[in-house]
Amino acid sequence: MSYQADFLRALYRKMVTIRKFEEKIGELFLGGELPGFVHLYIGEEAIASGICSNLTDEDYITSTHRGHGHCIAKGANIKPMMAEIFGKKTGYCKGKGGSMHIADFSIGMLGANGVVGGGYTLAVGAALAAKMKKTRQVAVCFFGDGASNRGTFHEAINMAAAWKLPVIFLCENNQWASTTPYRTTTAVENIADRAVGYGIPSNIVNGNDVFAVYEAAKVAIERAREGGGPTLIEAKTYRIKGHFVGDPEMYRTKAEVQERFEKDDPLKNFVSDVLAKGWLKKAELDQIETKITEEVDAAVDSARKDPYPDDNELYSDLYVESEVNLRA
Ligand SMILES: Cc1ncc(C[n+]2csc(CCOP(=O)(O)OP(=O)(O)O)c2C)c(N)n1
Fold first, then answer.
1. Is the CB of 174 within 6 Å of ligand 1?
2. 148 CB-near residues (< 8 Å, 6+ apart)
3. Best mutation site among 22, 42, 66, 116 for ligand 1, i.e. most ligand atoms within 8 A of its Cβ?
4. pLDDT tens, residue by residue, 250-302
5. Would the CA dihedral through 308, 22, 44, 105 be positive or negative?
6. How far apart are CA 166 and CA 310, in angstroms?
7. Residue range 5-304, CATH number
8. How far apart are alpha carbons 194 and 192 in whole angstroms?
9. Using CA atoms, how far apart are residues 120 and 158, in angstroms rounded to an integer?
10. Cα distance between residue 199 and residue 265, in whole Å
11. pTM of the prediction?
12. Nearest CA to 198 among 234, 223, 236, 231?
């Protein structure tokens, strides 16, 4: 398998943007600059990047509480993302959604979601609309291993399978649900094994290998576009950071995390892979990284200067009809 240099540069750009953006978010949060709560996606960049590189702006994704990587991979602009996480008026949700509710309908990013397992039915709805309108769009639903134990998992996959909807269920199995290891909450060896119960195909991929994810997603997405219905893909990875920034992580050792990151860092592996194969040059990777670091810094600078929303906007944008007045 070989890839075009432009494609590889775009892949690298996605993964490095996620990494740099998230490193900065972690730093800002610990520095007390960000309100709310943030969950980092560091170490899982290959999954969102590999999947979304098969999608167009017309396709849909639904995301999770760990959603920055999905947004960036789908093409969201990091300036309004950063502003949103700062709670500023210039943010994607005018500063009222925060990290867990970033959405950009113009690129089919239907939203991060603070409700674990909240994306399944939204993705199925989007896929049903696409099927009814015969648009050939697909929807990808990202969810975690913990979320796979919610009831909506069954309801959504069963309906999507029965109606052959163009939706990909993409489980990011990072081995942890908050403080709980996968093994203590889930009896099956693989989440993908459950596909049999719905009569749909499944695939298990190394979620730290962006090429493996890209290729598996390609097959499933093409199948969905052609009317073949849903696929369940399980991307095996590992949650490198705490459940949230500030998590004391009393439930695992630092040595375990370090060992996994050294072995499985998707970004480091991508770089050594493309350099070893002579697909890209170190100088161009460095150039991309420098540019993205500048872009992230610029996003922070403008978010810091931007205004907070006005108090009188507290109840606006809650419903589509702007005339709804909850205070009345
Ligand atoms: C319906 C619901 N139940 C519980 C929570 C609290 N909660 C937030 S994240 C999380 C764990 C999710 O684990 P997983 O789906 O594996 O995703 P990961 O955090 O590993 O990315 C829980 C229980 C929630 N936000 N929503």
1. yes
2. 171, 186, 191, 194
3. 116
4. 999 999 999 999 999 999 999 999 999 999 999 999 999 999 999 999 999 99
5. positive
6. 41
7. 3.40.50.970
8. 5
9. 11
10. 34
11. 0.96
12. 231
Whose CA is closest to atom 4 on ligand 1? Answer: 116
Domain ranges of the chain: 5-304
Q: Which residue has the tokens 């959603």?
A: 67
Task: Check pocket membership of 239 for ligand 1, CB cut-off 6 A.
Answer: yes
Q: What are the backbone angles phi and psi of residue 143, rounded to the nearest 5°?
A: -155, 160
Task: Give the whole-angstrom CA distance, residue 237 versus residue 75.
Answer: 23
Pocket test for ligand 1, best of 40, 65, 143, 243 (most atoms within 8 A of CB): 65
Cβ(146) – ligand 1 distance below 6 Å: yes
pLDDT in tens, 76-121: 999 999 999 999 999 999 999 999 999 999 999 999 999 999 999 9
Q: Which two tokens stand for residue 144?
A: 């975690």
What angle (nearest 5°) sits at the alpha carbon of residue 171, between those of residues 165 and 175? Answer: 165
Cα–Cα distance measured from residue 205 to residue 233, given in angstroms and rounded to the nearest whole number: 7
Structure-token match 């199925």, residue found = 124
Q: Tell me the residue ranges of DSSP E strands in the chain.
A: 60-62, 139-144, 167-173, 176-177, 180-181, 202-206, 231-236
Q: Among 195, 214, 181, 165, which residue's Cα sits nearest to residue 55? A: 214
The residue nearest atom 5 of ligand 1, judged by CA position, is 116
pLDDT per position as a tens digit, 231-250 = 999 999 999 999 999 999 99
